[in-house]
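Worked example 2:
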Amino acid sequence: MGQIVHDTIILERAINAPVAAVWNAYADPIAHAQWSVPVGEAMVFDQTDFREGGQDHYRCGPPESLGFHAVVQYNKVTPHNFIVYTETVTTGAELLATGLVTWAFEPSGNTAHVMITNQLVSYVGPGMVEGNRSGHTKALEQLQGSLA
């Protein structure tokens, strides 16, 4: 049986690109799958419906196994401003984590200030929380790189 751990992860980054470009990189599932996972891992969207009330289903992890499955339920989508969604991650039949995630985008000239807030519950201990923090941090770095 797992250990329940709660945390709120808040990450911010100034991205040297207009908000519209950052928004489009998030909304495009092909681009999103490239910048949102660490080097050496992969993400495959099985379903995408990026809109309020829509759902994404994806698999991620090492390319040979893609053993993590996630369901994203978009609760509020305000273009070029913010996205609020729930995300539940599983592997096989094991429930790993559920998060309430907000991506906020604020323009400042040709720079986009991006803030991610993830109110996360891990059902399997603190490793999932740290993995989530590390993954979102890397995603923001790679998002910047993809828009350079």
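The chain is about 25% helix and 50% strand. The chain has a mean pLDDT of 96.
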